[in-house]
Amino acid sequence: MHTAHQLRTMPHADLCALANLAKGPVASGHATFDKAANHRVHGYVGTGNVESNVQASAFIRPWAETECNGHSFPPGHLHDTDIARFAHLLSSADRAKIDALTRDRPAIAYVFFHYVGRRRVTHGWIVTDAYYRFIAHRVTGPTVKSQAVLDDMRRRISWTDTGPRLLN
Q: 10 forms bridges with which residues in the sheet?
C-alpha cells in the first residue's frame, strides 16, 4: 500500500512500473491501428502528454486551479484551456463528459485514433487520474474493433485491477 504523498513524489518511471502497465508491441486485434501504433518512427502510445499518429493525450487541471508558471488566471480558465486541446478530436458531448469527470481532480485525458488516407478514425477516449488509475472511457469508433483498441490501450496507460490500493 502506498500513501498519496509517496505516489506524488515517485519518479514517473517507478510509478509506471508500480502500476504494472502493459508493454511491448500494440496488439489490439485492429490491424490498421496496430500497424500505425507500432510504426518505428511515428507510432507511440504512452502516459501523460502525448501527440502521435494514434494518440493525443494531456493533463487536465481541476477547475479550481488558478496558478500556472507564476501567473494567476480566473477559476476554470486553465481547465477549459486543457480540454479545448481535444476540440478537433471529440464531439462537444464527449468534451462535456470529460469536463464533468475532471472538474474536481487533476486527470489525464487520452484519445485514440488512426488515419486511413487523410481521414481520421477515432476509436474513443479514456480518462485516468494523475496517478494513472482508470476513471472512465467511451468507445466512439465505427466498428466493434474500437472496443478492442480501447481495451488494449487501457492496459497500457492505466492501473490493472491487481494494482496497489491508495491510502489517503
A: none
Dihedrals phi, psi of 64, to nearest 5 degrees: -80, -10
Buried b (16+ CB within 10 A) or exposed e, 31-68: eebbebbeeeeebebebeebebbbbbbbebbbbebbee
Cell output for 78: 486553465
Domain map of the chain by residue range?
2-159
Give CA–CA dist 147/139, Å, rounded: 6
What is the pTM assigned to this prediction? 0.84
Q: 12-25 burial string, b = 16+ CB within 10 Å, else e?
A: eeebbebbebeeee
Which pLDDT tens digit goes with each residue over 10-50? 776 666 565 556 678 899 999 999 999 999 888 899 999 99
